[in-house]
Every structure is written in structure tokens, then in C-alpha cells.
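Quick one, C-alpha cells below:
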């Protein structure tokens, strides 16, 4: 069985505490759960804060390897992006740039990254996405991601990340039509599975684990609780334990 954890790190934003405190919460959770593969969104590289990106900082503390892919670079050298962590060999990471419509409220560049990881059950394609919160851009993001995912049709695959869409979003229908399975809906159809924090408690579900050719045997919300005034992020994480579909 292969375990995958997905989490939006919230960069260096301090609305739930400074990074040093949040990092400690995340490191303890990862040390306790020991996921085989970690997919992170909203990962920051800020030379004024630390010479390494946040994913590489976590990897160095926990004995993982990390690969960070910048979605955008700011004028002052800061970068925002996505990352994979793994205890095994890092795969060649593919970057899929998603389009950005002009004139929308969300001006952030969006990307999806993918890698083929070696697992005891064979190769597993893992895709890590961070989609827009603007509906018009969400539609584009899902369509473009599906086009990229067609290249691995027939392979065992997992799509995770911060989709910024609730389960009733019409744009998620494209994934279902392409026979991707929403693991939370499959395993916990009567539970909300909230992952995004509003007013200090998770209140909506916008983070996902989707599978194709794999079956989620367990899926739990992690890092939903804070410590005092600090939380790991404005998102909770999801920890999935997966095996090959029969």
C-alpha cells in the first residue's frame, strides 16, 4: 500500500502563525504519519526568509528528498509554486502550465506538476494541482489538466491538490466523466470532509484526492487542529492510503 499526503502550505502568510511555528506542527504530523509521497501547494521560496524553499526545508528535517517547481517569480526574487517530497528516488517532474485569462480577479499563475513514482506495487503517476478560485479560470484549469492527464491513460494515477472548488462545482464533472474517482466521496459519502479554514475551523471541502487505476482504502483529514493560536495552514491536509485497483 502507498500513502500520499496533500497539503496547501499557505506560503509565508502569518494569519495562522509565523512559519517557524507552523513548520513545527507540519513536521510533527509528517513524522507521525510517514507518508511515502507528499504533494504540497502554495510553497514559497523567499530569500529574505530562508535560502531554501519551504518544501526543501521540510525535507531536510524529515529525511525526504524534495523537488520544487515555481509557478511564478516576483520582481523581488520570491517564488510561489508546488512541490513533491519522497523518501525514494525523485522522479522526473513534468510541469503543465495552465492558462491565465486577463482581467480576472485572480492574477496568480497556475500549474500542475506530475511525476512517475516507484512503489512496491509498480509505477504510480502522481499529479499535484493548484487551481484558481475564479469560476471562469477554474473551467479552463480543469479542461487543460484533463488534456494533460490523457497522456497517461491506462496507467495507475492519482490527482491531488487544492482545487478551490467545492464538490458541487460543475467543473469537477469533467473529471468524473473521465472516470476519475473522488476518493472522499467514495469512502465517506455521509461526511463533509472539510479542509479549508474559515473562522478558525474547517468549513468547506476544496482539497481532493482523485484516483484512476488505484483504490483508496483509507482517507483521513490531517492537521485540522491548531496549537494555541497557530495552525499549520489555512488548509487541512488529506492522507490517503492506496492500492492497485483489482
Amino acid at each position: 500500500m502507498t500513502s500520499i499526503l496533500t497539503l496547501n502550505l499557505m506560503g509565508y502568510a502569518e494569519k495562522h502563525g509565523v512559519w517557524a511555528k507552523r513548520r513545527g506542527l507540519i513536521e510533527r504530523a509528517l513524522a507521525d504519519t510517514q507518508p511515502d509521497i507528499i504533494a504540497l501547494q502554495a510553497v514559497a521560496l523567499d530569500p529574505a526568509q530562508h535560502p531554501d524553499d519551504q518544501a526543501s526545508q521540510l525535507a531536510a528535517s524529515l529525511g525526504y528528498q524534495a523537488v520544487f517547481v515555481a509557478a511564478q517569480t516576483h520582481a523581488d526574487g520570491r517564488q510561489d509554486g508546488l512541490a513533491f517530497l519522497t523518501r525514494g528516488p525523485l522522479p522526473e517532474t513534468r510541469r503543465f502550465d495552465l492558462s491565465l485569462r486577463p482581467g480576472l480577479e485572480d492574477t496568480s499563475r497556475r500549474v500542475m506538476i506530475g511525476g512517475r513514482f516507484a512503489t512496491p506495487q509498480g509505477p504510480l503517476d502522481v499529479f499535484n494541482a493548484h487551481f484558481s478560485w475564479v469560476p471562469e479560470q477554474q473551467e479552463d484549469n480543469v479542461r487543460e489538466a484533463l488534456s494533460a492527464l490523457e497522456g497517461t491513460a491506462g496507467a495507475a494515477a492519482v490527482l491531488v491538490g487544492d482545487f478551490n472548488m467545492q464538490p458541487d462545482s460543475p467543473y469537477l464533472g469533467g473529471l468524473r466523466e473521465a472516470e476519475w474517482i473522488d476518493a472522499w466521496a467514495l469512502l465517506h459519502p455521509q461526511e463533509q470532509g472539510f479542509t479549508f479554514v474559515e473562522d478558525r475551523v474547517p468549513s468547506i471541502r476544496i482539497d481532493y484526492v482523485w484516483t484512476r487505476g488505484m483504490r483508496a482504502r483509507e482517507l483521513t483529514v490531517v492537521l485540522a487542529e491548531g496549537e494555541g493560536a497557530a495552525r499549520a495552514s489555512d488548509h487541512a491536509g488529506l492522507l490517503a492510503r492506496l492500492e492497485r485497483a483489482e
